[in-house]
Amino acid sequence: MSIEKNKEIVRRLFEIVRSHDLALLDEVCDENLIYKTPEIGEVRGLDVYREVIREAIATFPDLDPQIQVILAEGDMVCSVHRARGTHEGDYDGIPPSHGSFDLLASDLFTLRDGKIVEHQEFYDVLTILRQIGGASEELRPEGKEWPRGGAVLKPSSEA
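^ thats the sequence. predicted structure below, dont judge the formating
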């Protein structure tokens, strides 16, 4: 595939997510797709990927990822997208706050034969938590795990 065709496929993925018509993911994603994020780690398979996106839309029904920058070389496409949404569903144990988030995220896609075979997404979970009210502005102590239901964070001087 050409570099421009690969970028077009990634743009189509973002259109599908915004449309919420996840049955259309078959157009652009390989059935054995690998998806990696800092939050959930690695999952495999188009059905699992579809479910992850479905859960994100259930949590943030107005989820609106918009590509800001897209670059490609060979079979890889890199994008920076701005994601916005309103917290209307459970988010990792945090009940709906009706607050919104707005952040930049980056993605690295690997394509083969006109389909996305791997999607790595990089974003700052703490930014989302802070914006929806799931974490205070303080720093968490000594690298402890985030408590479910929202984090109460302490300055490092108290650690």
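The chain has one domain: 3-134.
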